[in-house]
Design goal:
39% of the residues lie in helices and 23% in strands. By secondary structure, the protein is an alpha+beta fold. Helix 1 packs antiparallel against helix 4, helix 3 crosses helix 4 and helix 6 packs antiparallel against helix 7.
């Protein structure tokens, strides 16, 4: 196959995707797409006198694709590698809940049909006949990752990524504002969806939070906080830090919620209604790789107590927002 028959755009994108993967990822994720073994690729890298890096592997595979693959094959491999990259890299996912299921097919059967169902739904509802749906899917760690895109010969739409746990009425999407989202939900086998007001980068944690009862132990079995000096390695702890860590560890267990954004909102009456008969609203936004660790650090710095209402609300949260009110003790 001559190089002129393969799109330079797809070749360049393919090279960039591979070069950004770790070397181990090149071996486990990339080579199976080309049907090549590592010994042949590593030999080609050495013969070209290149360092053994992802960029060198990408250069070798680009040359191979130019000579041995068609444009459609390169485009398909690029799409699947892009999807694999999405599956292994951290990104923000938005949780949606699915309802009004329209199929009773077994989960395994439905999973196989999802790409075709999504493509059919898009094709049937797009006015421009020149636009064709491009749907790819892979399975990673028990999740179905799907990429959805509309394309013509001249241009391509933005890509919608979906992570779907088979058999659960929930999905994670890369954006809530894609015009393809409603039709993609239909392809998943549902007629309706709703924004769960929950987002983050840790998929297992998001699924634990949204699935009722799986993110925390029974509230009736809440531990009792005992703030007293105790013996620790190296001496005595008079700061209660050890007791606070143990208390929070018992409260949340091993699967503490991992969110990178958290909004705390509080509303209460002004302390003297004679001066101002209005409610005061306070909003605090926390942004960090792990907002729970920020709250833990606040406890160690004695900014808040481990028995604070914040942790009791965090204990049963279902979104990135925690709402407190003067007349509510359990929100």
């Amino acid at each position: 196959m001559q190089s002129t028959s393969v799109s330079k755009y797809h070749l360049n994108e393919l090279q960039i995707l591979i070069s950004k993967m770790p070397l181990q990822g090149c071996y486990t994720l990339v080579l199976p797409e080309f049907g090549l073994n590592w010994s042949a690729v590593s030999r080609a890298v050495r013969n070209a006198r290149l360092p053994m890096t992802p960029a060198s592997v990408a250069s070798v595979l680009k040359k191979h694709a130019t000579k041995a693959l068609t444009n459609n094959e390169v485009a398909d491999i690029t799409a699947r590698l892009r999807l694999k990259s999405v599956a292994i890299r951290a990104r923000t996912w938005y949780v949606i809940t699915l309802s009004d299921k329209d199929t009773d097919e077994p989960v395994n059967t439905l999973v196989r049909k999802i790409p075709g169902r999504i493509a059919h739904a898009l094709k049937a509802n797009v006015a421009n006949a020149n636009k064709k749906p491009q749907v790819h899917s892979i399975k990673v760690d028990g999740l179905i990752f799907i990429s959805v895109q509309m394309a013509t010969s001249a241009q391509q739409s933005g890509i919608l990524y979906v992570a779907s746990p088979p058999g659960q009425d929930v999905a994670l999407v890369s954006t809530l504002h894609s015009t393809m989202l409603r039709l993609t939900v239909q392809g998943l086998g549902y007629r309706k969806f709703e924004d769960a007001q929950l987002n983050g980068k840790d998929i297992p944690s998001l699924l634990n939070i949204i699935n009722s009862g799986t993110n925390t132990p029974n509230i009736a079995n809440m531990p009792e906080y005992v703030g007293a000096p105790c013996v620790v390695r190296g001496g005595y702890d008079f700061t209660n830090r050890h007791a606070s860590r143990e208390y929070l560890s018992q409260m949340f267990g091993p699967s503490m919620p991992i969110l990178d954004t958290l909004t705390l909102q509080s509303e209460s009456d002004f302390y003297d209604p004679a001066i101002l008969n209005k409610k005061m609203k306070v909003t605090l936004k926390i942004k960090a790789d792990d907002t729970f660790k920020v709250l833990q650090q606040w406890v160690e710095d004695r900014v808040i107590q481990p028995t604070s209402e914040i942790f009791h609300a965090f204990h049963t949260l279902k979104s990135n927002q925690i709402q407190f009110s003067q007349n509510s003790d359990d929100e």
